[in-house]
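Weekly modeling sync, notes
Attendees: S.R. (lead), two postdocs, one rotation student

Agenda item 3: backlog of single-chain predictions. S.R. asked that every request posted to the team notebook include the full sequence so nobody has to chase files. The rotation student volunteered to paste the first one in as an example of the format we agreed on. Action items at the bottom.

Example entry:
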Amino acid sequence: MNRGEAGAGRRPLRVGVVGCGAISKRYFAAAYDSFEVVACADLDRGRAEAAAEAHGLVALEVEELLADPTIDVILNLTIPAAHAPVSRAALEAGHHVYQEKPLALGRAEAADLLATASRTGRLLGSAPDTFLGAGLQLCRHLIDSGAIGEPVAASAAFLCHGHESWHPDPGFYYRKGGGPLLDMGPYYLTALVSLLGPVAAVDSMARTTFAERVVTSSPRAGERIAVEVPTHVAAVLELVAGPLVTLVTSFDVWPPRYATFEIYGTEGTLALPDPNTFGGPVRLLDPGGNWSDVSLDGRPLQQRGVGLADLAVSAMSGRLPRAGGELAHHVLDVMLGVLDSAESGRRVALQSRAERPAPVPVGLAEGEIDP
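Predicted structure, as returned to the notebook:
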């Protein structure tokens, strides 16, 4: 299909972006047939105007954008604390919504978003969408086809020394709604739920190693950030299907030599790619101790924006989006459960559930999410 087509008799859905920060550039560059970005807004009018000029968009005030009846979907790229109020306002205004993670800062806010989407008849979706990429979709196929037998356990670790050395405005990573779990946990947890199903209960511990962070990146070099959240979190997750998962996220340690993201089965081990990417490598260990690389078999890698493209297709076809609100709500519930467990010292049983999203069909071209 050409850029301006979205299937026979369909036009691409018109998207308005709220929040023109660093991540917005990825979405502005996305090339999918089911949507086109036409307008943007930001509390910093200058930033919105710069983005509009760079990408051929219309710059509006946030209220103007939300009130525009020609906009089909609001892409909410605000800071975590603004995710829920902006998304709720967009749903109330009659727009579908796709937003960055996390879905909200609390369970009540997240439940309210789901209820608002249901009441207004609008779709709600949320990043991350990397689980729709070739690497993790291949892993889904391998697990479902029995390549490692019955899954028994999994391990995942995101370890770094924080974002103040590279991010231009890193303060929110250390305030409520930030921290390594809420920042990077969604990539690992969304991938795990899509591969193995929902989480039943969690048990965890956490600490804050540094009470203050000093920014070394421009333009805020030298600023000091008071840390308000746990910055090293270690958890055990019990999945509904039975496997046990160990998850560690940290802003307190120097990166390890090797990243760990693996699923262990009765007949082998599956080494997964970095869930913050769309490709490989994917590796299998057989019972004889032999590792082999598994080809992506021509699957399209996908790119940032595939979740938005999938939601747009869903709005036109009537199916449920793969990176939908229920999945994002469950992932948020898992993360909040982990933090609750660390604070209370007790195992936490989760009330939410989410179905595994439908796999992405094989044989698609780059820029497609459905045949």
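Discussion: group reviewed the output briefly. The chain has a mean pLDDT of 94.
Action items: rotation student to repeat for the remaining queue; S.R. to check formatting next week.
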